[in-house]
């Protein structure tokens, strides 16, 4: 029986992915900043552990508690939408620290055991913002694009040891807590001069022609984990698939 460790599993994509793999008989380690076992079905195959991906001590404690892991899913992240000019550097640093460096730190922590076993898969969850042009998301896009480049390079060097690295690129999912997970509400990051520019963009967010479900992302992660073709990118959701060129 294989073990998957998922970051950011308290809601959204991470929570649905934990359910998806539990239902298919996997051992699941669901990590959360504030562990809450009640959000997932009761199962002897489930462990819920604390994790702050921005804390080296928290990551080290998790590695010790988790033991052998076959699949690492780096899903934890924070949002940030607004005019880049209005974003304080503290917010930009938080985005990069969680969405980019947090992924790198978690990956670095689990590579040694996978390299020694000559097996394992790392799945990094980014966003469809990496597939197109998305105004009012410059810093957030930058934090996700960093993970795209990181993973593409990492996949080559880890392949030598039989370890795989994959990217899952979710589309826009209005049913997730992306807005609630934003560090600063968007209305605080739109100075008056940007109002006319932002209005049609925000209206588009409110009425998107295509959207992504949490289950789309869980299925894409499942596909990525079981892929042995060497494929790197897995867009998740109809809107992400369309941006990627219409085919998975």
From TrEMBL:
<protein>
    <submittedName>
        <fullName>Short-chain dehydrogenase/reductase SDR</fullName>
    </submittedName>
</protein>
<dbReference type="Pfam" id="PF00106">
    <property type="entry name" value="adh_short"/>
</dbReference>
<dbReference type="InterPro" id="IPR002347">
    <property type="entry name" value="SDR_fam"/>
</dbReference>
<dbReference type="InterPro" id="IPR020904">
    <property type="entry name" value="Sc_DH/Rdtase_CS"/>
</dbReference>
<dbReference type="InterPro" id="IPR036291">
    <property type="entry name" value="NAD(P)-bd_dom_sf"/>
</dbReference>
<comment type="similarity">
    <text>Belongs to the short-chain dehydrogenases/reductases (SDR) family.</text>
</comment>
<dbReference type="InterPro" id="IPR051911">
    <property type="entry name" value="SDR_oxidoreductase"/>
</dbReference>
<dbReference type="GO" id="GO:0016491">
    <property type="term" value="F:oxidoreductase activity"/>
</dbReference>
<keyword id="KW-0560">Oxidoreductase</keyword>
